[in-house]
Amino acid sequence: MVADQLADEEWDRLFHALSDTTRRDIVLQVMRQGQSISTLARRYDMSFAAVQKHVAVLERAGLVHKERRGREQHVHGAPVVLHKAARLLDSYELIWRHRAQAIDALLAEEET
Amino acid sequence: MVADQLADEEWDRLFHALSDTTRRDIVLQVMRQGQSISTLARRYDMSFAAVQKHVAVLERAGLVHKERRGREQHVHGAPVVLHKAARLLDSYELIWRHRAQAIDALLAEEET
DNA sequence: CTGATCTGCAACCACAAGGTTGTACGTTAG
DNA sequence: CTAACGTACAACCTTGTGGTTGCAGATCAG
Question: Who has the most CB within 10 Å: A20, A21, B32, B106?
């Protein structure tokens, strides 16, 4: 559990990668089905190079993987990192609930 | 469930707010216990104004709330948005698992 | 009142982000 | 072989981000 934590810069890259609507949509697309970069690029109203950059950002964040298939580059999802991010946010939320629980306990004790 | 979805720009702001180590730490701190901006600022090796900006980013993302307490500004956590973010990431992961399930089903059918 | 403290905001700066176009290279189709 | 396609990468521009300093306005202590 502790071992699958990421370094600060890795979390930075991960959340930064998710902070763009186009990139989140790319993640959705390749989670549903792996696609080539050019196939992806056709979906968006921007240049091929721009989409290529978005994929590179996602790859550096560990959210997708690329794999050569002849002259194409097949992009597919990597759900592991996604899972880690969700669990980190859960842990933040949990801290809140622990604290709320502690306050409740304190109030209950004061009433005795 | 559909009603508590956010707009694209809101998700952008949310994940962007989380994409900085200092800001994630501020979230942790104020989830544990609400604090004034100056108290927070003492924890980090940067100017008061910088911390103030970070808090502003978190506030625009809906991750924290500010509340005047005399001359101080009390910052406390807002776990609702955190929860939404975690569930969005879960839904992305779920798409992957649905797809994996469909592939398994397809393979099982081919074997008959 | 006076002075210290907490905050808000504007101006400024260096650098990274997100987009463009252009060029080059490997691969497949005919 | 040649042409078309998919990709990679560099140069460039504009905008935004993260930091600074400095100043002004509230508020509390004495």
Answer: A20
Q: Which nucleotide is nearest to A70 (CA to C1')?
A: C27
CA distance B15 to chain A (A): 5
For A29, residues 6+ apart whose C-beta sits below 8 A from its C-beta are A35, A40, A43
CB burial readout B73-82, b (16+ within 10 A) else e: ebbebbbebb
Count of the separate structural domains present in chain B = 1
Q: Which residue has the tokens 């940067």?
A: B46
Contacts of B110 (CB under 8 A, 6+ apart): none
- Its domain, for residue A43, covers 8-111
pLDDT in tens, A70-107: 889 999 999 999 999 999 999 999 999 988 777 778 77
| Residue B42 to chain A, least CA–CA distance (Å) | 20
Enumerate residues 6+ apart whose C-beta is below 8 A from A89: B18, B82, B83, B85, B86, B89
Residue A3 counted as domain residue: no
* Diameter over CA atoms, chain B: 74
In a domain, B46, yes or no: yes
Residue B1 lies in a domain: no
